[in-house]
Amino acid sequence: METKCLSTKPYQVLSGSALKLIACVSMLADHLAKLCFSQSGWANVVWFSVAGKSISLLQLMLMFGRLAFPLFAFLLVEGFLHTGNKRKYGLNLLALALISEIPFNLLFGHSLLFPKQNVMFTLLLGYMAMCSLEHFRERPIISLAILLSLFLISRYLQADYRTAGFVFILLLYGLRREKAIQCVAAPILLEMKTMVFLSLLLTCMYNGKRGFIKTPFLKYFFYAFYPLHMLIIYFLAR
Question: DSSP label at 49?
Fold first, then answer.
């Protein structure tokens, strides 16, 4: 399914694989900045100033880290629209969310038990919401009831980005053919709106192609990257 895009065709140079790589590097930078470098003197050295505001390496990493979730949310919507097996796609998300819980709890809660849930649960709930909208498109009352239930579950689970992340995914899905409106409306839901807007501009450069992630090894490597990088950072931080 093609979508309208702000950029002209010569600028649509990013494949889905390229966007996924940017998202993973962004997420890695964000977690390293928060959990390993936040107290490092060299990371807090001022690099330059913008409009009288000093910018350090740590701040740059945190800003760059804000690209990750919007890109993953966009890729989730694209995956939903193009997958040939929605059930398998959803089960993969569920498995990844469950596997990632222990690394997430160790990294952010310093314990095997932590009241908050990892971001894969946010993506899973968003995916389930899109499935309900598609399956019950002729029965809006049922669809609305499911959406409200998923919204409340997201609030109860305290999944990463919480209800704002859940609504953000639905907004990307609902406005998938209206990129201009999407770029204006979607950043309102998340922090660091300028970086969220920039991430959505990157999605406008998407060319609709899969890219270099074609082999099963690369596919599952990028699935495994989320829990693995958290485990590695956990041991580095210790």
Answer: E
- Quick: pLDDT tens for 129-160: 999 999 999 999 999 999 999 999 999 999 99
Cβ burial 48-58 (10 Å sphere, 16+ → b, else e): eeeeeeeebbb
CA R_g for the chain: 18
pTM: 0.91
In a domain, residue 92? The reply is yes
Residues 1, 185: Cα–Cα separation, whole Å: 22
Query: Which backbone phi and psi does 46 adopt, to 5 degrees?
Result: -70, 130
**Number of independent structural domains in the chain:** 1
End-to-end CA distance of the chain: 46
If one counts every other C-beta atom within 10 angstroms of the C-beta of residue 142, the result is 12
User: Which SS3 state, helix, strand or coil, does residue 191 take?
Assistant: coil
Question: How many other CB atoms sit within 10 Å of the CB of residue 110?
Answer: 11
Residue 48 belongs to what domain range?
Answer: 9-237
User: What is d(CA 163, CA 126) in angstroms, rounded to the nearest whole number?
Assistant: 10
The token pair that represents 132 in the structure block: 């309900």
Tell me how far apart the alpha carbons of residues 34 and 38 are, in angstroms, rounded to a whole number.
Answer: 5
Helix or strand run (H / E) with residue 24: helix 16-35
Residue 3 is assigned to a structural domain of this protein: no
What is residue 36's DSSP assignment?
T
Which two tokens mark 26?
A: 């962004």
pLDDT of residue 229: 96
The reply to whether 164 falls in a domain is: yes
Residue pair 5/25 in contact by the 8 Å Cβ criterion: no
* 2 found inside a domain: no
Contacts 24+ apart (CB under 8 A), 147-152: 150/125
